[in-house]
Design a protein that fits this description.
4% strand; globular; mainly alpha; 2 strands; two-stranded antiparallel sheet; 44% helix; 5 helices
C-alpha cells in the first residue's frame, strides 16, 4: 500500500509454502522496499511466520505494546468500518481482491467474513494494512 495515495502496490499470497519460507520471502521483499515493515496477522499460520521473522531480525509491524496483529471478532468490525471510511480515497485494481470483497459481510453469527465457499484473505490484508498504516510503525 502506498502511503502517498493509498494505491495498492503489491499483493502476494500462496498456500504452497511453509511458514519459514513465507517469512524468508517477506524479509526479502521488505529489504527490496527499504526495510519496509512486515504485517502478518497473528493467526495460527501467521504466528509461525512472525516467529520466523523475529528470529531473522526482520522489521515486523508491532503495536504500541510491541505485539503483532491479532484480530478477534469485535476488533475486526472496527477495522472494516475504518476501511469503509477510506474507500473513496483508495485505488483498487486487483481483480482477486475486488472479487473477494463482494462476498465479505457481517454474517448471521455477527462475524465479519466471506460467505460460505468464498475467501476473505485479500480483503482482510487490505483492511489490516489500512488500520496499521494509520499508526506509527516500528
Amino acid at each position: 500500500m502506498s502511503r502517498d495515495d493509498c494505491t495498492l502496490c503489491a499483493v502476494w499470497s500462496t498456500n504452497l509454502v511453509k511458514p519459514h519460507q513465507q517469512a524468508e520471502h517477506f524479509a526479502e521483499l521488505s529489504a527490496q522496499y527499504g526495510n519496509a515493515p512486515i504485517l502478518c496477522e497473528e493467526n495460527k499460520y501467521g504466528k509461525a511466520v512472525n516467529k520466523a521473522l523475529t528470529a531473522m531480525g526482520a522489521r515486523c509491524w508491532r503495536d504500541e505494546h510491541g505485539k503483532t496483529l491479532f484480530i478477534f471478532g469485535a476488533l475486526k468490525k472496527v477495522l472494516y468500518d475504518h476501511a469503509a471510511s477510506m474507500l473513496p480515497m483508495l485505488t483498487l485494481r486487483d481483480r482477486l481482491l475486488l472479487s473477494q470483497m463482494r462476498h465479505v459481510r457481517e454474517q448471521p453469527n455477527g462475524n465479519i467474513e466471506a460467505d460460505e465457499g468464498h475467501h476473505d484473505d485479500h480483503p482482510d490484508a487490505l483492511v489490516f494494512a489500512l488500520w496499521c498504516g494509520r499508526r506509527q510503525m516500528t
